[in-house]
Design goal:
With 313 residues, the chain is of the alpha/beta class. The chain has a single domain (23-278), classed as Lambda Exonuclease, Chain A (Alpha-Beta Complex). The protein is built from 10 helices and 8 strands. A hairpin with a 2-residue loop joins β4 (165-173) and β5 (176-186). The model is unreliable at 5-32 (pLDDT under 50).
Amino acid sequence: MGGKYLIDVEVDCNQPEFDYRIKPGILKSKYLVDVEIAYNQPEFDYRRAEGVNQSSLKKILDSPAHYQAALKNKVIPTPAMEMGTALHCLSLDGRDKFDNSYIMKPDGLNLATKAGKEWKASVGRKKVLSTGGKDDPWGSVQGMAAELAKLAWFDPSQADYIKHNEVSVYWDDRGVSCKARLDRLMIEEGLVLDLKTTDSVEPETFMKKVVNLGYDFQAAYYTRAAMEAYDKPFRFIFVAVERKAPFTVDLFEVSPGMMHEGFYKVEKALDLYAKCSESGEWPIKEPVIRQLEYPSWYKSYGTMEEPLDEDIF
């Protein structure tokens, strides 16, 4: 498939007018002190900077103890996560940064052998991506990046393209230092774009990921950061790309209803975080007795009124 994709992002006229800023305390927090924006900040510096990020903060909705545990538990990236990180580097930071950060492992080279260890030592700190096999990490990252580049939004030839990628935003809310790193900002258009790699862009399948992984919380948190930083409304779109050929790309805009729910979760999380920080207590959920019922798909063996077959004993 050749050519560029031109995306129409006009507001659906059949939907009611919606302005996320019309609800004080939901987005434009009365507790806000100031906002700082950092363009092209190295990821290492962002991660070292003070501030609560969305991936850890949303754990507090399970319990404050879950949040504390998330801070201590180091996430071991899966192969899919590593491919996603590599794609972010290539598509958002540019080919030069990618080539300085990643290298393709020669086909057939075993890194456990003497030759493999010598080659690995020779490439220094570069991350190694394999070729071939079921996942074909190197080929998949190149393929996904090529399809994304067909979107006008991700055309690397446009002016200031890299400047508006991986934008770090820092702000203070009710005494809580917050931070967010936005994949791509279209400031004039009022769009926050978040890149996701996925097994499938089929809407029902992707929606399950949105719910199970708390993408609604992320969308609200990042939208809030953008609106506070640039003092204008923003919409939020997930740009999803499949990890396997032909690397289908699809776009999922967070609806006003989902955004409101996300804002509510963010407010609740920040409020709980502030209270726990002040008290110094991070409690776990108290156990409760829950009634177990069979799910709708369970097939019953019968009722107590029916006689048992004595031959089964």
